[in-house]
């Protein structure tokens, strides 16, 4: 079919509106709201109304929730800018970049949707996708919406036990994975699980040889014109905006990971706030360093870009020094990544300067931003740095704003987006507000709940739907916050919470340190402060050197570590968070 014929087909088709459908075994969760007719008019207020129905009506009125879907966004872009570059997916080892324009992305979405129908996927089923940053992830995301399935993104480094847990909990019917990753045969592990799990009917393998019992992804998903075979079968299947859409698994730092369930609307309100904060539009070219299977990758990356009609560029493997090649080649306007990645990028630009004149925003999260990083990025990339805070349960909640001074990202995690509220409670009494305390959030971006873990989710909610984030934060003096630490890790000195996150970030900049974290050996607030360090070379840092480094950064003497332990590898969760409970077991009181 020619491009002209494809365009004509897209123009002729309009989005299909269907009735909301129940999803199998999803509990009735606070926050799941079907689109209602004749919603009452609610005055726009700040703070938001305490009445849940009034809040939800306001979400629609303000456009945080909508009656359209992300699939409608894709159709609109394929119709209005069919040949604009939508995806640039770099394959580092193969030394090539796979690209999709909007018309190709739309066509592949329909083809992949037909392929899922051919495999027996029905509305309410779960489809698991275990991939690195590959182009296939993008049309698979939209194809799941097309067939009414819930997508379950999974990282390629997920161990078999954790993969079994996620597939078993969701009863995923299909698993799309890659042949091997970092020396591990993911395809063989997947086939083994298929034989073990009654619910897992199909394993599709990208790249390499598909083992017996698995499908070749190219053979089934790409080489067959399923959009023609199942065109009529796809009508009426699509997810609606308030249907369960994606399940994201938490890091599991305190136990078995939980599946955070989101609708398209709870995701939309978060990325709407994100793009509005930075005044982003169709000129967006986002270079994303985070995994597409994580919220920041598929939400702020893929969905935000397609919603605006922009371009997203990414690479499949971690090679931070190569990321600026993407910025230069595609004229990236926004660069997103965690502070350690951005530190590597700044150093790469000093060593091998690239043309990065198109960059306007450098956005970072997941760790504290320090002044030296802000200075480095301004000097090397000529762009402002913005800090955000969020979590799987709600996406980006706070962001340093355009009207802040250029250094504020080093002092704050920002103010809340319009769709969300924040408050800081006294840790011992959630009915009282405090300048430093437990951070709670509420708003349109809050998840529907934990899949099949409703009681655990309800434990985190106060009566008026305020969600306990588990973080300790302080007021930044401008209506925003600065994250200090996880509540379960808090240590106090003279009644003040030690800013563990900030001190960790400073220690991580020591030349003899590759990675560092702070813990209390027993988990009590009066614990001594223990620094656990992975050295960057053969010469290990001393406690005196670490303390002197912190004094040079003007840290309070009371907050300096009192003990140092050096280890070879930091214990971490699947999402890269340090397992502090493991460190407490290793280095408890002696």
Automatic annotation (TrEMBL):
Residues 74-451 form the AMP-dependent synthetase/ligase domain. Coiled coil: none annotated. Residues 502-577 form the AMP-binding enzyme C-terminal domain. InterPro entries: AMP-bd_C, AMP-bd_C_sf, AMP-binding_CS, AMP-dep_synth/lig_dom, ANL_N_sf, ATP-dep_AMP-bd_enzyme. Pfam families: AMP-binding (PF00501), AMP-binding_C (PF13193). This is AMP-binding protein. It comes from Streptomyces monticola. The lineage of its organism: Bacteria, Bacillati, Actinomycetota, Actinomycetes, Kitasatosporales.
